[in-house]
Amino acid sequence: MSLLKELNRGIIAENPVLRLMIGLCPVLAVSNNAVNALGMSFAVAFVLILSNLVVSLLRKVIPDEIRIPIFIIIISTFVTISDYIMKAYFPALSASLGVFVPLIVVNCIILGRAEAFAYKNPVLSSVMDGIGMSLGFALALVSIGVIRELLGAGSVFGFQLFSQAYAATIMILPPGAFITIGILMAALNKMENKVL
Amino acid sequence: MSGLELFGIFFSALLINNILLIRFLALCSFFGVSTGIENSIGMSSAVIFVMTISSAISWGLYNFVLVPFQLEFLRTASFILVIAALVQLEEIYLKKMIPNLYRSMGIYLPLITTNCAILAVAFLAIDYRYSFIASMAYSVGVSAGYSLAIILFAYIRERMALAPIPKWFQGYPIAFVTAALMSLAFLGFTGMFGL
Amino acid sequence: MGLVLALFCLVSAGLLAWVYVFTKGIIAEQARIKFETSLKEVLPQASAFTMEAESIYRGMDGERLAGYAVSVAPRGYSGKIAILAGVSVEGKIIKIKILEQTETAGLGANVIKPEFLRQFVEKKISDPIEPKKDIQAITGATISSRAVCRGVKEALEKIKP
């Protein structure tokens, strides 16, 4: 099935975060606990899927020369919508994600997919591509969030598994984000070489 | 606003809340451009240049246009478009007027539109309710902090090219581990001058 | 081409205006509910609140004065820490609550923990309210801890008879 292929690609082979190294800023910044990571994943998925959908729907109407400004307008519209929805219905989450919600607008994943995929492909595969990329993003973000929260605070999604006294606080501080993603990438390299 | 407060804003943006190592913004360029010292110097000068001008303009846009006309909901969209247009204008201007400078940082200018630090500084100066002068001190501090971190990182990476690194860690993984150690070092500035 | 661009801008602005108007009321309502629950939390004896002055709320239990709720916002490590303090008629802290903070997760952000906030109960203006004296600061977060202490002191000062 080709549609499934579009879906799968984003999850592992072209995982935006761990493979293509794009959209890194929110991954590091909001992954200090699993709930924030999940919230951010939803916001990115909302924007990415809808912008892929709209760009693909309108790909025949958008003149080639001004496609980038138009993509930016479409993306920033969805970003602002998700920002306000979050503020209205999940105020606590919105406060802890802070400036990173409006910053989704410059997240390279979204503009990148609009330009590289949605602008050239039919609606259904573009939506699938959006879902796949969002899942890949969420997978990377949430697993980093879970690792950091577990090691740094002794809890997962807020459930205390062991006392914070035994946790390494460094993991929820900025250096912990860099070191987690570095080691995760190295592990992925090793796994891949074994398979080959 | 006293000089001391301005210095506090500048210093905290430069080191304590370093945009790359502590606030995690503009990381794509941090890892992408830092492969050579010359590249990172070029990128830094472009960031200093664009960030200062764009935060001045977006501050004015927000406080003199969006707020009086109650159009705050257009903040995200208008800022990104203004920054994109500004980068284009600056590119044209530099090419015509100061070709030397254009040669050294011209190729980095288009990359800056998607550099999230520029947009983030514009947003944060408004979230913190800074005055115009304070937001200038802030953006100069942030861009100087960006330059400091990326140039140091480029020097380390140049050295690291000669080091025997485990196979799985070559390339990006070791770069992230290095960034972790730098970030740890920057955490040490916490509490300096009571900031 | 310019027409297409203008059309996109127009549609986008229209959509955003609609979402903004739609959510504005909800956002304001959420903030109000949150603030009122916080008032009740720091001053459980009171059933009704009236604003007495900027950032000071008078809590009434029927006809009787139950105490005051005072909001302060001292500067912490990475921004303002918004604190609401419930103060009894005798000028003692009943309970304090952190409304908003942007301190470092895992360090300064621990000021929201009940173990830390509990220490302020029963404090009055003549107490030192300082780390190393009568308050145990949070490990690795002296600045945030000191900021909360300063805020509590300021709150007590505000309603000094």
Walk me through what this model shows.
- The complex is a heterotrimer of chains A (196), B (195) and C (161).
- Chain A is mainly alpha-helical and 196 residues long.
- Chain A is 68% helix and 2% strand.
- Chain A has one domain (2-195).
- A two-stranded antiparallel sheet of chain A has the order 1-2.
- In chain A, strand 1 and strand 2 form a beta hairpin.
- Chain B is mainly alpha-helical and 195 residues long.
- Chain B has one domain (3-194).
- Chain C is an alpha+beta fold and 161 residues long.
- Chain C has one domain (42-158): Alpha-Beta Complex (Sufe protein. Chain: A), CATH 3.90.1010.
- Helix content of chain C is 39%, strand content 22%.
- Chain C has a 5-stranded antiparallel β-sheet.
- In chain C, a hairpin with a 5-residue loop joins strand 4 and strand 5.
- The longest helix of chain C has 41 residues, at 2-42.
- Classes of the chains: A mainly alpha (196), B mainly alpha (195), C alpha+beta (161).
- At the A-B interface, helix 2, helix 4 and helix 8 of A face helix 2, helix 4, helix 7 and helix 9 of B.
Q: What are the key terms here?
A:
heterotrimer, A: mainly alpha, 8 helices, B: 195 residues, mainly alpha, 9 helices, 73% helix, globular, transport (chain B), electron transport (chain B), transmembrane helix (chain B), translocase (chain B), NqrDE/RnfAE_oxidrdctase (chain B)
Series of secondary-structure elements of chain B, N-terminal to C-terminal: HHHHHHHHH
CATH hierarchy class name of chain C: Alpha Beta
Number of helix segments of chain B? 9
Helical/strand content category of chain C: alpha+beta
Instruction: Give the strand order of the largest sheet of chain C, numbering strands 1, 2, ... along the chain.
Output: 1-2-3-4-5
- What CATH architecture of chain C do you see? Alpha-Beta Complex
**Gap from first CA to last CA of chain B:** 16 Å
Strand proportion of chain B, as a percent range, falls in under 5%
Organism (chain B): candidate division WOR-1 bacterium RIFOXYC2_FULL_46_14
Subunit structure (chain B): The complex is composed of six subunits: RnfA, RnfB, RnfC, RnfD, RnfE and RnfG.
Family (chain B): Belongs to the NqrDE/RnfAE family.
Protein name (chain B): Ion-translocating oxidoreductase complex subunit A
